[in-house]
Every structure is written in structure tokens, then in C-alpha cells.
Amino acid sequence: MINFQAIKVIYHHEMMRAWNTLFQTIASPVLSTSLYFVVFGSAIGSRIEDIGGVSYGAFIVPGLMMLSLLTQSVANASFGIFFPKFSGTVYEIMSAPISSLEILIGFVGAAASKSLIIGIIILITANFFVDIHIMHPFWMATFLILTCISFSLLGFIIGLWATNFEKLQVVPLLVITPLVFLGGTFYSIDMLPPFWQNVSLFNPVLYLVSGFRWSFFEVSDVNVYVSLAMILVFLSVCLGIVWWMFKTGYRLKQ
Amino acid sequence: MQPIISIKNLSKTYDTGHHALKDVNLDIQKGEILALLGPNGAGKTTLISIICGLVAPTGGSVTVDGYDIISDYRETRKRIGLVPQELAIAAFDKVFETVQYSRGLFGKKPDNAYLEQLLSDLSLSDKLTSELRALSGGMKRRVLIAKALSHEPRVLFLDEPTAGVDVELRKDMWKIVNRLREAGVTIILTTHYIEEAEAIADRVGVISGGELLLVDDKNNLMQKLGKKQLLIELKEPAQAIPESLAGYALALSKKGSEIIYTYDITSDGTGITALLQAMAEAGLTMKDLKTSQSSLEDIFVNLVNPQ
């Protein structure tokens, strides 16, 4: 029998952390998005031609959303599970009648929900700067949700793996941020020399940004189904790693 | 009667190669208070951690109320509350919220009336909305107890509940334990304070080097405690115990300069007066007298360090 109460309290506890710092939770994505629009959308963007018939300001919206979704998902989920480990309170979760899946749904569900809310806030903020018309809302929602879940899973893995705050920071800083910036967030890979176009194809974030952008404007670097397949592969790999971590009690159980 | 906890051939070897538990067998009866005594690193916490699901055993099995701790973990953990040794708390959570959280984790529906009563019993009524970081060490420990009891467990593990706690709080803690016992909760506590085991336990188990050396009724142990020794220093060393004193449990030590008389303080007469008289008649002159009593601590030390 599923322990719904446990899922509920973990989810609620994690969401309350964001609620208690509501101002930061809302203000920081609003502010950073506004800054990106001022700098890239207006100042620089006004000198850049339309890409695939889409103004540069609008073109970067899906990329900006992805940038925040990825970093926020990883940050929220990794901190969510790392902190109980760090403070020692994880003993309570480990000694409760909860399955690994229920723990995962509680923590990852909350982290993904928070990212989703931030994504929507960014979309609303962006709407003040540029006209946005979403051509495929269903696809857009699918990419949005799948991205939130899979990167929250990645964050959860990092949180389990990390043994100190430095490690908690290192993956987002050294891996995720560069991948996001080099994944076509602010440009189409058509703008790159052929060699770098090919290199970019090894960047998983490219597929996310491309698919997400397609759902807005039908403009993409790679086929939308390839994007969908890539995110599903990424999700499966993360689930596989989490399953292995729980099965072996990695960094949780001696 | 079926024991509430049954531990069979339990062993644990950590990845580091440390053999923390060696073939431990123990049955714990419903409603009893068992104190596990042992020095640091004896394996007490490992034993508790295995039963609670924090550490995976290497061998053997444990059942709680007839359920296996691994295959039926939901059933066993529902019945168990754990108060850990470390003051592990989420610093920014509030007292009432953190107890509600614990209850939910264990799958119980919210019951604020029960939780309010629980917190009141633990003298935390006026701290319901306080952040945990603002509480004193003693208060934090009470919160940990409240969290462990939030889901109404039948078995409570207290891992070093009074380590680093002042005398007053320690006495309070003992009162809490007694109240829980009256409510029918089985309590297993680890401690290295012998007086704590004496004060509240029904049975005492001694663990050292991963082995359960002894489990005995506290009163039996106290009987062993009842033995007292009289040390009689002689003016002139004696070669042997005189024949006329053969009826007493005497031993010679320090090359005949001391006679040791072991007697039972729980019996009607100690026999000291008669002995002293008999000694005078045998021509032994006393220089000094001293009595000593072996404590549970001595028994414990002898068990732990048999050499």
C-alpha cells in the first residue's frame, strides 16, 4: 500500500521552503529574465536579424526558460535531499515506512513543481517584453514538464552524491551552465561554423532547447521527435541511476 | 509470549572491514525496558540502526511483532520510533510542524489533538511555533522524542538519550520513559551511564566488541552488586588462614598482610562481629579496616575487559 501521507508531507515540506522565501522565489527569475531581455533582447537583439522569421527577442524566450528550468530544477532537487543528509535529519526518512519511489516522488515532485512555477513566471514576464504566441501548447507543456522532472532527477542524483557544499555547486557550475549556454539558448546552431555545429549535436541541452523552441515557433535545430526521444533517454538514464543508488543504499545506507 | 523483537544471529561488517556486530541473538519482550550498556564503538548504535532500517545487516534476521525488518519493512517501521544520538534537526522548521511532518512520514493521518497532548507531556506546549534552532539542547532532545512518538509507536529506541544532558533533564527523561512504560511501550535504550540502566531498566544487556556478552534481569545483576568486601590489614603478615576461620569466605592477599572477607549485605547478618572476634582469638592483630562494594560498573568492566 502506498504511503500517500509520507509523499504529501515531503512534498509539502519542500514546497514550504520556497513559500517561506517567496520573495526570492519569484523576484529572482523575474529580475534575471528582465535583465536578459534588456541586454540580449533590446540592446543586442535589436542589431540581430530575425531567425527563421522570429524576432531575436522572442527567439530567446524558450532558451531563457530552459536556462532557468535546468538550473532551478538541479538546484532545488539537489539541495532538497542534500540538506537532510547534511543536517542528519535523513535518518527519519530512512527509518520511516516509505519506499524509495515514494521518497523520490516527494522530493523530485516538489523540485519539479517549483521549476514549473518559475518557468511560468518567466513566460509571463517575457510576455511584457515581446509578443509570444505558442503554436503547439501541448508540446510546449510536454517539454516543460519532462524537462522539470528529468533535471530534478539529475539534481536529486547530485544531492545524493554530494558529500559537501562544494560538490553540490560543482556540477551545476561546471557542467550544466556551460551546456545550457552552448546548447543554443541564445542562438541557432546554424549561426555556428560547421565544425561547432557538429560538436553541438553532442550537447543534450541542444535537443531540449530546440524542441521547446519548436513548440513556440516551429523553428528548430533538430527534429522535434529527436528532441522528445533525447529527453526521454535522459529521463530513463536518470531514473536508472536513482534506482541503482536506492538499491545499493548509495551514500544513504551503510 | 511472542517477543516483540526477535534478533537472530545478527552480524554486520562495514565496507571498511570493521566487524561491528558478531552473531547477536536477543529477544525483547513486549512492554519491557531494556538497557544496552557498552563502551563507545561497542555496536549498540549499529544494532539499533539495523532494526530501524538505517543500516543493512550482513547476516542474520530481525523480526518486529513477527514481521521481518527487510521484507515487511513497512509493518516493522510503523511500530518503531527512534530517538537518535545526534541532535539531528531541521533548524528552520517549527516545533509543531516538524512533529506533524514526522507523523505523516510514518503514514499516519494528521491528528493535531494527539500531537498537542504529546508536546504538552514533553513540556513543549509553549514552544509550538518556535523554530528548532532557537531551542536549547534539552528542548531539542524533547522535540526528537516527540517526533519519535508522533506516530504512536509500540517500540521506542532511545540511542544515548541522556548523553550530554544535565542532571535535571536526565531525571525528566527517566520520568518520560516511565510514563511510556505505563502506556505499554517497549523501550530499548543504549547508554554508557550505569546509573541510568539501574534507574529505569528491567533488563540489562552488555555489548562489547560487537558481541552481546550478557543479558540479565536487572535485579539479578543487583544481587551480584549486593556482594561486599571487607579488607582487613594485619599488623603481622599471616602465612595462612587459621583453621578456626575456615568457616568464613576469606582470602589472603599482599603476601599475607591483608585478609579479604566477602559477604552478602542482603542476608540477615554480615558475620563481621563474629569474624573479628574469631580473628582476635586466633591471634591475628588488625592494623586497619576498609570495605568496598563491587558496582555494576565493576561487573561491566570485568565483562568487557576479562583480563
TrEMBL record, chain A:
Keywords: Cell membrane, Membrane, Transmembrane, Transmembrane helix, Transport. The chain crosses the membrane at residues 22-44, 56-83, 103-126, 138-162, 168-187, 199-216, 222-246. It is found in: Cell inner membrane; Membrane. Residues 20-249 form the ABC transmembrane type-2 domain. GO terms for molecular function: ABC-type transporter activity. It comes from the Bacteria. The keyword Transmembrane helix applies. The keyword Ribosomal protein does not apply. InterPro entries: ABC-2_transport_permease, ABC2_TM, ABC2_TM_bact-type, ABC_2_transport. GO terms for cellular component: ATP-binding cassette (ABC) transporter complex. Signal peptide: none annotated. PANTHER family: INNER MEMBRANE TRANSPORT PERMEASE YADH-RELATED, TRANSPORT PERMEASE PROTEIN. Belongs to the ABC-2 integral membrane protein family. This is Transport permease protein. It comes from uncultured Thiotrichaceae bacterium. The lineage of its organism: Bacteria, Pseudomonadati, Pseudomonadota, Gammaproteobacteria, Thiotrichales.
TrEMBL record, chain B:
The keyword Transport applies. InterPro entries: AAA+_ATPase, ABC_transporter-like_ATP-bd, ABC_transporter-like_CS, ABC_transporter_ATP-binding, P-loop_NTPase. Residues 5-234 form the ABC transporter domain. It holds the Pfam family ABC_tran. GO terms for molecular function: ATP binding; ATP hydrolysis activity. SMART domains: AAA (SM00382). This is ABC-type multidrug transport system, ATPase component. It comes from the Bacteria. Gene3D superfamilies: P-loop containing nucleotide triphosphate hydrolases. SUPFAM superfamilies: P-loop containing nucleoside triphosphate hydrolases. Keywords: ATP-binding, Nucleotide-binding, Transport. It comes from uncultured Thiotrichaceae bacterium.
